Amino acid sequence: MKLEILTKSDNSNIQKEIISKIRDLIILKNLEPGDKLPSERMLSDKFEVSRSNVREAIQKLEFYGLLKSIPQSGTFVANIGVIAMNGMIEDILRLDEPEFKSLVETRILLELKTARLAAIRRTEDDLFKMNEALLAYKKKVENGEDAVQEDLLFHLAIAKASGNSTMNTFMLIITPEIITNFQKHHVCDAGLSKRGITDHQAIFDAIKDKNPQLAKQKMKEHFKELYNYCYNLE
Predict the structure, then answer these.
(1) Is residue 4 one of the residues assigned to a domain?
(2) How far is residue 204's CA from residue 210's CA, in Å, rounded to a whole number?
(3) Among the four 76, 142, 172, 228, which has the fewest Cβ within 10 Å?
(4) Full-prediction pTM beyond 0.70?
(5) Is 80 exceeded by the pLDDT of residue 162?
């Protein structure tokens, strides 16, 4: 099972610079809704950055609804006025990297909902993927290895089983930052990993038994210690 996440630029400043230049290009060329942007290759040459950096900037603007990419056709300006677009891009450029505590809060709120929905909507294939991730997590923990990605794979499988594509997308978006911060703050050194095996099994069993209230409760208990740990961080 492979962890699939939305990638982000390793260098936030480069990405913000590209976004700013795309905005300037739209204004300079007087592009209107529905007009096509130059290709990634042309933008890469013009801005003197890699195509992957350009692609990430475009994906970010597309996520916020400012651009629209159509396979085999290109990237187009979305149906939004210039003034509104400038304002939204300014907001995007001012966004700071999310704090670890904020990420944890967001993740908990999402996962209480996804656990409940997964217990209602899960399929046999969903159960198979959850169990696969659970066993992979257990194996790594028992071997004393870093199991952060396997932990998140289990939770991403639950998000997918919820049948709510928006919640699933939000989980995919915050996952890379969660992985980075888990490693930064050594969360797995806090004695949570071994308890996670029991917690994961209880959550899995509740979802398998189609018990939404119990699934939500077990997820809440699972996050209680992590939440307390995060808020005791200096």
Answers:
(1) no
(2) 10
(3) 228
(4) no
(5) yes
pLDDT tens digits for range 166-219: 888 888 877 777 776 665 655 555 456 788 899 999 999 999 999 999 999 999
Let me know: does 192 contact 226? Beta carbons within 8 Å.
yes
Structure token pair of residue 95: 């966004």
Same domain, 123 and 226: yes
- CB burial string 25-63: b at 16+ within 10 A, e below: ebeeeebeeeeebbebeebbeebebeeebbbbbbbbbee
pLDDT tens sequence across 64-75 = 888 999 988 999
Task: Report pLDDT digits (tens) over 1-40.
Answer: 444 444 444 567 888 899 999 999 998 888 888 999 999 9
| Co-location of 60 and 121 in the same domain | no
Question: Do 218 and 118 fall within a single domain?
Answer: yes
Please check whether residue 147 is in contact with residue 73, taking contact to mean a CB–CB distance below 8 angstroms.
Answer: no
Strands annotated E in 5-145: 67-70, 74-77
